[in-house]
Amino acid sequence: MKQTDTKTLILDVAQELIQRLGVNCMSYQDISNSVGIRKASIHTHFPRKDDLLAALLDRYSDRFLRMVDGILASSDTPEVKLRRYCGLFETTLSSGDRDKVCLCAMLGAELKTLNHPLVERVRCFYEANEERLVTLLNDGRADGSFRIDEDVQTTASLIFGLLEGGMLVARVRGGSDQFHQVIEQLMQFIKV
Amino acid sequence: MKQTDTKTLILDVAQELIQRLGVNCMSYQDISNSVGIRKASIHTHFPRKDDLLAALLDRYSDRFLRMVDGILASSDTPEVKLRRYCGLFETTLSSGDRDKVCLCAMLGAELKTLNHPLVERVRCFYEANEERLVTLLNDGRADGSFRIDEDVQTTASLIFGLLEGGMLVARVRGGSDQFHQVIEQLMQFIKV
DNA sequence: GTCTATAGCGCGATAGAC
DNA sequence: GTCTATCGCGCTATAGAC
What we know:
Chains A, B: Pfam families: TetR_C_13, TetR_N. Two copies of one chain form a homodimer. Chain A is an all-alpha fold.
C-alpha cells in the first residue's frame, strides 16, 4: 500500500485547476499553495510546464478510456451502455464544486494556445472517444435498439460534441440538472 | 459616412483574439501591435480591461441577436429558420483562419476567470438564444414540421449546447465540414 | 528532493509631456 | 488622443545550498 507521492499530488491539483479555470490560469504558484511545496520544487518533478501537461493528459486519457472500455466490455444493453457513457460526463460536472468540466473540454477550447505535442494528445482523446461511440452505436443498430440512418460516424461526433462541448455551456446556465435532461432527450432521439 | 474610429478597431482586434485564443491570452500588447497604437493609448478608450470586455460583449450580443431576430421575423418556414440559425455558428467557424469560435463560447469556457458583470452578460446571451429557439421550436411544432415531445425548453438547450459547445469540439478535429454534417443530422432528429 | 534567491519576461495600469 | 517612461505584480525557469 503505497502512499500518494508528491508527483501524484501535483497532477491532482493541476487537473482540478485546469478543469475549473483553464490551462492559462493554472500556475506553478497555485499548485504550490495547494500541495504545500515551494513552486521551485515542482520543477524537480516536471521541468517545464509542458512536461506537466503532457503527463496530466496521458494519465487522464488512460483513466477515462479505461472506464469507457469497461462500459463497452460489460454485458449491458447498448442503450444502458450509452447512458453509462453519458454518465461519465455528468459525474464530472456534478462532482465537487459543480464547476468542473472534462479536462479535454477545457484544453480543446484553449487549443490554439497549446504547443503541438499537447494538441495531438487532445485530438487523440477526441478520436478515441468517437471510435468507441461508433462501436457502441453499431452494436445498438445491429440489435435494433437504436435508429440511426446511414452515417454512424456523424452520430458519434454529434453525441461527443454535445457531451464534451455541451458541458461547457451547461456550466454557464448553472447546472448538471439541465445537462441531465438534455442527455435524456438525446437518448430519446436515438432510441428506436 | 464616418470612418472606422480607433475604438472600433480595438474592439475588432480584441474580438478576433478572444475568438481564437481565449480571453486570458488577449493582451493590450497584442491589440497594440495589430491596431498600430501604443498600448498605453488603449487605456484612453477602455480604462480597465473589464471595460473593454463589457463593451465587446454588448456589441457582440446586440449584433448576433439582431441577426437571429431577423431570421425569426422572416417569412421562411420553421425548418429553414432553424437551418439559418445554425448557419450563423457555421459561418463563424469557417470564416477567416477557420479557427474562430463564437465569442461567448470561449468566454463560457473561461467563465470562472471572469468577474461578475461579465459572467452575467455571457449568461444573458445564452438565455436570449435559448428563448429564441423556444419560440422557433414552438412555431415548428404548431405547423407540424418538428416532432418534439414535451419539453421544448430542453430541446432548445440541446440545440444551443450542440452549436455553441460543439463548435469548440469541431475545431479540434479540424473542421467546419464535420460540424456541418453534425448539424444536418441534428435536423434529421428534429424534423417530423 | 526540497529549499532560498533571483533572473528575465509580459502583463495591466498610471503619470505626465506634447 | 497619442506618446514615452515607469511602476508593481505574477509568471516560468534556473542556480546553488542543504
